[in-house]
Batch of 3 targets.
Target 1
Amino acid sequence: MVVPVNSYNLYYRDGLGNISTSSVHAQGNNKLLILQPRFPLFGGWKTYYYVSYILTPIGFLFKDKSNPQQRKFIFELLGSPMKDFLIDDATVKVLLPEGSIYMGLKYHGVNFDSIGISESHSYLDFYG
């Protein structure tokens, strides 16, 4: 799986927990995350897993030309980073930094079954 070069804290797990057989290698302007399932998968078998990583805003966060006080987060969500994989169902979550305000979502050429917006707080997060 190809992930951006500025990604860190990569995490790969399935329903049982962390899978420690994964590894990461540099590959030009990207990183190559090698994922090995916990068990061998034979033809027709299915599995599910979670891949997570953190990105710095460099290359994704831009000033809005019409309003310099606002920033736009531009990220290509689709276009599978994995070759030769069939993905029946995918969930993509984007977590914006504390203090960010959701202003809208624009997407082109893709039909989503559903789009949900939620807010989550972590340790020491507060609003006020």
Target 2
Amino acid sequence: MTSFTLLSTSLREDSQSRALLAFCADRLRHAGRRTHWFDLRDFPPVLCNGDEEAPIATYPQPFPALHSAMQQSAGTLVGMPIYLYSTAGPTKNVLDIIGDALTGKPVGFLTAAGTPRSHLAVRDAMNCLQFEYEAFVYSKTVQVCRDDYDRASVEERTAAFCRGFTQFADALASLACVEAQAMNAY
């Protein structure tokens, strides 16, 4: 059974991005997938010092546990808030610390923001993971704004996102198997 890591990066108690991620976790479990849930509110406040050589073991738990779960899972979903047209500081910080765990892995984003244009900020996180860590970023996102009161529509979009992301992750896993078989043939 494949597993997925889910990371909620909002520090707000009534976070919309966390609610989206929880809905996605439920969908994954109903589809027979295991989930590993991490909530940034449970992490100690630690800043990334920019030292790319700093091993993950130098960070306190649960950073190493998150790193390990991401490396071992079939993919990672990040629920993140957008504040003032930008990736929230805590989100950027944790992605800087654990980003290398996503090398060669699929990652997707579920975002909550005040306005539709605010969601363009997710591109910063996507670009960082794609270009710095060579993660496979799922280009579709679930975007919820403060005016999204139609719960059925939000759930429908989130369910479609979950289906698409698992298909994306499964396709990448199949390609990796084919590549490994080809390498073993030589």
Target 3
Amino acid sequence: VEEFVVDHENKIVSTPAYMSANRITEVEAGITKLVDEVLKLI
């Protein structure tokens, strides 16, 4: 749940977040990394 993927060509960032987590606390790391990457793209 901590992983994310980036498509730099199309500027798409994705994480499985809630699809793979059992608890909301498990998604925080992946979402944080996703947001950090989105900020790099803009």
